[in-house]
Hints:
Blueprint: H1 2-36, H2 49-64, E1 75-77, H3 80-95, E2 103-110, H4 115-118, E3 125-135, E4 140-143, H5 158-164, E5 189-191
Antiparallel strand pairs: 1-5, 2-3, 3-4
Keywords: Signal
Amino acid sequence: xxxxxxxxxxxxxxxxxxxxxxxxxxxxxxxxxNSIVTKVKKPDQMISLQEAHKLYEAYQKNFISKSNNTKQxxxxxxxxxxxxxxxxxxxxEAAKNNIEVTGLRLYFAAYPEDPDTYGxxxxxxxxxxxxxxxxxxxxxxxxFDPALINDKNQPVAVEKILKSGPDVFxxxxxxxxxxxxxxxxxxxxxxxxxxxxxx
Length: 199
């Protein structure tokens, strides 16, 4: 009799633990599912397709059709994976100097007429991404490069380098880094000249 009671109790206790463990698993799954379906608020900068059409047409009318340059780019493309890795890399490198990346500045540019270096992109329009930090003294988001920090442990004025070249800062200790690949991004797929057959 005692053996049957002990056996029944053992089965009951084992069943309770089994049910509890199943509930915990369900809770974990529920938490995982909640983390997956967490809603993100739509950014205020989103526009309608009607507005996008107006902007596209205005660009074609005011810039493309009026230009004598036949090497006008229609658009550029980077993968979503690039954007994720790029932003993560910028934040990682900027954190080493206790700088917060506040955004990205988009510079319109063009590839030099140098086919040996740039291939079929030579002469075409392009763009560059440059990270920004907030300069409280000027109340502005300034472009910077996480790899270029001056002797005062402050971000280097990247806009001066873009306009005048690195030699504007003569004999600076960090000057040799300006020829290295740093925080400025380019090298996307441009159209033209690399338009897919179906746009």
